Amino acid sequence: MKLGFMGLPMSGKTTIFNTLTDQHKLTSSAAPGKLDVQVAVVEVPDPQLDSLHTLFQRGKKVYAKVTYADIGGLKKGISAGGLSGPFRNELSQMDAFIHVIRAFEDPAVPHTEETIDPQRDHDLLETEFILADLITVENRVARLTDEMSKGKNRAENARELALFEVLQKTLEGEQPLRAIDLPDADRHAVRGYGFLSLKPKLILVNYGDEITLAPDKVVQAHSGVPVMAIQGKIEAEIDQLDPEEAALFRKEYNISEPVKDRIIRESYSLLDVRTFYTVGDDEVRAWTTKVGATALEAAGTIHTDLQRGFIRAEIISCKDLLELEGWAEARQAGKLRLEGRNYVLQDCDVVTIRFNI
Questions:
Q1: What is the pLDDT of residues 308-338, one digit of tens each?
Q2: What CATH homologous superfamily does 292-355 map to?
Q3: Per-residue pLDDT, 2
């Protein structure tokens, strides 16, 4: 999982990225229009994994991981003629975006557009992505039309052309591609184009000392994009305190939990993934897989050999295993069960794959 932080300069994007990833990048280091990318891998806090490791005492404790990238240099007008190669290449590698939008006043940090207008700032970058995708779609439509005029692969090209005409109409209407309810087959067909406005997006509205208005009232986003409030500077300062002091300050500012926990949880929701666990002789480990993944697919997540030689999966919920305090007790209570390859994993299942190769 790789999510890209984006936002106009002086939005507080890098401050939030630093807090999430424990990085120390200078917040003013990226020049507008010049690509600058910082990447960090974040371990996902997981109390249930901690409890499993304490119970079994099996070597290493391996947390699930999420990769975040701070993409600096995005600005108004960057896509004139199409996003440049380096920008487009970097952005297309992301599974989703976290769009930080400024909603705070600070005379010491002037806005590049001179005034504070969260909706405008959202629309500026959304439009950049829509325009970049439109150029790609128009080029593909022109090529498909040309190939069909020459009698090449008429049936196949006609199907693809029909799909791309839908995409073109959406983009020309200034709507992102994520606004379309594309069937899985169509999503698979366009996967190689790296459409930016098709990728899931989370909006972080970055306030100052006080959240004056609900974030979904500050920014109206297309197609059900989630919008979350954050007080970037304050939460960065709180993050530097010891846990007891931090809890007091969060209560004072009405912040329910650490920003890292909130962003990671929203990242999981954005990418539609869930956690499962394995308990081996040398490690207790958390894994991620798509919601709806089968036991066979989970086996492949662990190792391709397990998928290739899959026989059965032994399954128990993490909650049941922790309450019963061991495998023998779980078997005696009848909580361990054998499932076939088509079993759909539930959140926080503990999985043991039986296989033979």
A1: 999 999 999 999 999 999 999 999 999 999 9
A2: Beta-grasp domain (3.10.20.30)
A3: 95
pTM of the model: 0.88
Query: Cα angle at 29 between 28 and 32, to 5 degrees?
Result: 85
At residue 310, φ and ψ (nearest 5 deg) are -55, 130
Q: What residues does each domain of the chain span?
A: 2-269, 292-355
Decide if 21 contacts 113 (C-beta within 8 A): no
Strands of the chain (E only): list them.
2-6, 36-43, 60-62, 65-72, 96-102, 201-206, 227-230, 273-279, 283-290, 310-317, 337-339, 349-355
Helix, strand, coil tally for the chain in percent (to 5): 45, 20, 35
For residue 355, pLDDT over 90 is answered with: yes
Distances (CA, A) of 82 to 5, 79, 183, 194: 20, 4, 27, 14
Angle, CA 147 vertex, CA 143 and CA 149 arms, to 5°: 115
Beta bridge partners of 317: 349
pLDDT in tens, 45-67: 999 999 999 999 988 999 999 99
2-269 and 292-355 agree in CATH topology: no
**Domain 2-269, architecture per CATH:** 3-Layer(aba) Sandwich (3.40)
